[in-house]
Amino acid sequence: MDQPDKIKTPDFSHITSEDLNHIYEPSEDSFLLIDALEKDLAFIRERGPSLCLEVGTGSGVVITALGSILGSQCHYIGTDINPRACSITQQTGRANGVDIETVRTDLVAEVIDRVRGSIDLLLFNPPYVVTPSEEVGQGDLEYTWAGGVKGREVLDRLLPSVDALLSPKGLFYLLVLKENDPEEIVSIMDSRGFSCECIMRRRTGPENLLVLRFSRK
Ligand SMILES: C[S@@+](CC[C@H](N)C(=O)[O-])C[C@H]1O[C@@H](n2cnc3c(N)ncnc32)[C@H](O)[C@@H]1O
Fold first, then answer.
1. Domain 28-216 belongs to what topology?
2. CA separation (Å) from 40 to 45, 91, 174, 198, 212?
3. Helical (H) or strand (E) element with 163
């Protein structure tokens, strides 16, 4: 039987306006990442992923979208620094029939030891807005967008762990903004043994967004 090749936007109608005072509302960047995963679906399926980790799940729409198309062949783990985001991610998963294990942690600190070398799909839509460093991590909503210098202060703390996380066939999907200096990110990852492909780019209002896919050379 043919497998579906379109990813359905998850139902997130359970998220209240009060929740949105604390967590990231599914936005253009979230949907661009979902669109990039849809575009890359055949490539993803070829690799037969069995473990997926999203860092910074927010509402959980991205990992839920992926889970609803790949199904239970894959185990889904989501982390977020914000406990409310973890709980809403679980709700979003449940509302769409996707079982997601959530872990409240800074990036991957609480999971890395048990998932070392076994993540087939790693996803991150980081807080990418260029801000003064002091704004990074100042509160639930600042966590969602404030990226500090070059909008890279949170992302740059994850990059050194990618090699330890990914399985030999692992893929890392990363959403970035032009101001984040994607060329420099590609060069950092190149020096760590990863090649990069730009899967999608989109201009939304003032933002120039790109989705990069890294894999081992
Ligand atoms: C731009 S939002 C993306 C949310 C969701 N993935 C999406 O695409 O809609 C960034 C997310 O990263 C989380 N975050 C920020 N800093 C983090 C950290 N140090 N560790 C874990 N999660 C973090 C935020 O709480 C927020 O949910």
1. Rossmann fold (3.40.50)
2. 9, 26, 13, 11, 11
3. helix 162-165
Nearest CA to ligand 1 atom 12: 56
Query: Can you tell me which residue has the tokens 């800074």?
Result: 106
> Under a CB-based contact definition with an 8 Å cutoff, are residues 92 and 64 in contact?
yes
Distance CA 23, CA 20 (A): 5
Cβ 155 vs Cβ 172: under 8 Å: no
Q: What is the pLDDT of residues 96-114, one digit of tens each?
A: 999 999 999 999 999 999 9
31 Cα to the center of ligand 1, angstroms: 15
CA–CA gap between residue 206 and residue 1 (Å, rounded): 43
Mutate to test the pocket of ligand 1, among 125, 152, 180, 209 (most ligand atoms within 8 A of CB): 125
**Does the model's pTM come out above 0.90?**
yes
Q: Where are the domains of the chain?
A: 28-216
- Ligand 1 pocket: which of 25, 80, 128, 209 to mutate (most atoms <8 Å of CB)? 80
| Nearest atom (ligand 1) to Cα of 140 | 25
